[in-house]
Design goal:
Low-confidence stretches: none
Shape: elongated
Structural class: mainly alpha
Radius of gyration: 19 Å
Oligomer: single chain
Largest sheet: none
Mean pLDDT: 90
Number of helices: 4
Number of domains: 1
């Protein structure tokens, strides 16, 4: 992997980190309990919405952790190589999913 390719991946990771951090802040605000008196239908709707938002928040936090880990590894010699087969992970895959540790074949 060239220095230019690594720089592009770092830039992608940093942009994704900013976006996900903003998403997490929004989701945390949305999932904060509402103490207002509500009618039964509104309360039930809020329970369902909270469940959906909690799931999205958990997924965002997982992706954030993966990206932070990828940013730490990106300058290492093993970054960009599949942890299972050792083959190089294509640049397009790393740009789409910088946290990918497996090639497409091994990820299946």
């Amino acid at each position: 992997m060239t220095d230019t390719q690594r720089a592009a991946i770092k830039e992608k990771i940093r942009a994704e980190l900013k976006r996900i951090e903003a998403d997490i802040a929004t989701l945390e605000e949305i999932t904060r309990p509402d103490k207002e008196d509500e009618d039964e239908a509104t309360r039930m709707n809020n329970i369902v919405s909270k469940s959906v938002h909690d799931t999205a928040l958990a997924a965002a936090r997982t992706r954030l952790a993966g990206l932070e880990y990828a940013l730490k590894r990106v300058d290492g010699p093993e970054f960009g190589f599949c942890i299972d087969c050792g083959e190089e992970i294509p640049q397009a895959r790393l740009l789409a999913m910088p946290e990918a540790a497996r090639c497409i074949h091994c990820a299946r």
